[in-house]
Amino acid sequence: MAIDKFLVEASHIMMFARSVGDANPIYHDEEYAKGTELGGIIAPPTFAQSSAQFDPDYFLRPKIGGEGWFGSGKEATGAKPSKESGGGGGGAAMGLHAEQHFEYHKPVKAGDVLTATTKPGNTWEKESKRAGKLKFSESVTEYRNQDGELVITATGVGVQTERAVDS
Amino acid sequence: MLKENEINVGDTHSAVLVDDLKRTQIVQYAGASGDYNPLHTDEIFTTQVAGYPSVFAHGMLSMGLTGTMLTDYVGDGALKKYGVRFTNQVWPGDTLTGKATIIEIREEDGEKVVDLMIETTNQNDVAVITGNATARIES
Predict the structure, then answer these.
(1) What interface predicted TM-score (ipTM) does this complex get?
(2) d(Cα A42, Cα A26) in Å, to the nearest integer?
(3) Based on the number of CB atoms within 10 Å of its own CB, is B104 exposed (0-12), middle (13-18) or buried (19 or more)?
């Protein structure tokens, strides 16, 4: 996966912060944020995950133009998902998400324009009583800002299960 | 930001992250993050096709909720590292509590930092997230 342009916008940060139950004004109140040491609205720690919005091939988003979607409509399922594309900073595209790690090198601020490149990492297998054979795979995404500075390194671990995990 | 002279190894901070998680909040996270996997938002697909008892939260929603607790504790822009394992699924109706425990106060790259152990549990005291974080502190 490569993302050429991940626009970090204040309204997107506001919506993301709301969705994770975060009322901190640093994520939505520009005047407040300007008065802090950070000098403006910043992104919450897991915001990089929403880079999926800027990945043109992200497979967990219905596509415009009738490529089909595997969620329910008239039938319980529509189409088979394509598993070709990598996912955000994480493992969603590789099945279920097993682990996620972020390293923060610089604050990500509203107005930043990031790029992201993802490389595959390690893969391994494990047997599980709850879900059969588990296939783990790691992906490492580097986010850089408009000045070419590395701002976040995100490592996701995805797991493919043989069958649905019981609750 | 945490102050070195005000904290000790073993200190904890905890908060209720969500009380009775609603499907709508999962939808809200899908929209904000861009992860529209029907396993999180489409009850018909998830129960009839994928074979789960109901939709369930994105792991990253739990990590994000836990992150809210974490940044409320360590301050804005203070995190250097934050990593988690998703140890159990989070279902609609769950109530999650996040806890951060100081395990070390040390120096890194010429600045004072604190290492934290993180655990988020559900209403049955089952861990849904375990992890760790490192944050800058004021010396």
Answers:
(1) 0.97
(2) 6
(3) exposed
For the whole model, what pTM was predicted?
A: 0.92
- Whether A145 and A111 have beta carbons less than 8 Å apart is answered as no
Does the residue A167 lie in any domain? no
pLDDT in tens, B107-130: 999 999 999 999 999 999 999 999
A166 falls within a domain: no
A158 touches B: beta carbon within 8 Å: no
Which CATH number belongs to the domain containing residue A61 in this structure?
A: 3.10.129.10
CA-nearest residue of chain B to A46?
A: B64
Quote the number of domains for chain A: 1
Question: Tokens representing A134?
Answer: 């588990």
Structural domains of chain B in order of their starting residue, each with its CATH number:
4-136 (3.10.129.10)
Determine the structural domain holding residue A113 and report its residue range: 2-161
Provide, as residue numbers in chain A, all residues whose Cβ is less than 8 Å from the Cβ of B58: 92, 97
Asked if A11 is an interface residue toward chain B (Cβ–Cβ < 8 A), one would say no
Chain A positions in Cβ-Cβ contact with residue B18 (cut-off 8 Å): 21
Is residue A69 a part of any domain in this protein? yes
Structure tokens at A117: 């490149």
